[in-house]
Amino acid sequence: MHLKKLTSPKTWKIKRKQNTWITRPNPGAHNIQHSVSLSFIIRDLLNIAKTSKEVKKILRSGKITVNGIIRNDPKYPVGLFDIIEDNNSKHILYLDKNSHITSKEINIGSRPLKITNKSILKKGKIQLNFNDGSNKLADKDSYNVGDTLILDIKTKTISDHLKMEKGATVYILGGKNKGLSAKIKDINGDKITLIKDEKIFDTVKERIMIINEDFDITK
């Protein structure tokens, strides 16, 4: 299925009056506001193909990975903080200052995942559910909903645990400050008070994600 450019999400950085259609990403873990098709990334963001035919040829070669896994479906949905790698470089998706999905070249091999839910399984195992729809088992109940884990995209091991606490740096996923980073000034239940450049404002937990310096794209 394709989607008319004029009705596509405003987060997509496209020229809406050129041509009529654009590839719609398949349903997946990321919502359509925060994801684009792999075809869009290869052709419109990374500019390593000019046509859909060229995109399919590149994907058939097996040279494109998303979070360390080879993907060959042009409609595969790629979302915020997913890492796309070709032969030459790695790129991470984020929201720019105009709230458009775009990419930036990086040299790291890990990605942040926000814990959206957790549950206790048999034998005391803890299942952590993440914002991208994936999950991971943990031996200890030391992680809280809202925290962020930094996951190595190849080994799938946890390299860092970022807690939702005062002073933590957050990336804003929704609202009028979407795409910016700020510091947590206070936490009151679901209400989060943030500070950025001496400006203080409120948001809710679901609209932020804890990040570290490596992923502070707004710098």
Write a structural description.
There is one protein chain. With 219 residues, this protein is mainly beta. The chain folds into 3 domains: 2-106, Roll (Structural Genomics Hypothetical 15.5 Kd Protein In mrcA-pckA Intergenic Region, Chain A), CATH 3.10.290.10; 111-162, Beta Barrel (OB fold (Dihydrolipoamide Acetyltransferase, E2P)), CATH 2.40.50.740; 169-215, SH3 type barrels. Helix content is 8%, strand content 40%. It contains 2 helices and 19 strands. A 5-stranded antiparallel beta sheet has the order 5-4-7-8-9, with no helix packed on it. It has a 5-stranded antiparallel beta sheet with strand order 12-11-10-13-14, with no helix packed on it. Strand 17 (191-196) and strand 18 (199-204) form a beta hairpin. The N and C termini lie far apart (37 Å).
Topology, element by element:
Blueprint: E1 2-4, E2 21-23, E3 35-37, H1 38-45, H2 52-60, E4 65-66, E5 69-70, E6 77-79, E7 83-85, E8 90-95, E9 101-106, E10 110-120, E11 126-130, E12 135-138, E13 148-152, E14 158-162, E15 169-172, E16 181-188, E17 191-196, E18 199-204, E19 208-210
Antiparallel strand pairs: 1-2, 3-6, 4-5, 4-7, 7-8, 8-9, 10-11, 10-13, 11-12, 13-14, 15-16, 15-19, 16-17, 17-18
